[in-house]
Structure to design on (85 residues):
């Protein structure tokens, strides 16, 4: 990923973290995060997935699969520990 991609990923990750701090019970698919949580912060679902992967690796968000196979993200254990972006 180039430098611009990295900065975009970090900006989207920061927006996701901020949304979850304000809405700690929120949970959604990557598409739902793009359409409902970010509303204009990210351009496409791949940007959102990269940011969610980054946040998952840091323990800030967690994901689970629904019975229908869709992946759902929500606040992770480190979101409120001071380590959240």
């Amino acid at each position: 990923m180039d430098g611009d991609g990295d900065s975009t990923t970090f900006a989207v990750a920061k927006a996701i973290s901020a949304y979850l701090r304000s809405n700690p019970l929120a949970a959604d698919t990557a598409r739902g995060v793009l359409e409902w949580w970010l509303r204009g912060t990210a351009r496409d679902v791949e940007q959102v997935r990269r940011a969610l992967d980054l946040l998952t690796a840091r323990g800030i968000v967690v994901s689970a699969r629904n019975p229908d196979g869709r992946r759902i993200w929500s606040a992770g254990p480190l979101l409120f520990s001071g380590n959240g972006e």
Q: What stands out?
A: Helices lie at 3-22, 30-38, 45-57. The longest strand covers residues 61-65.
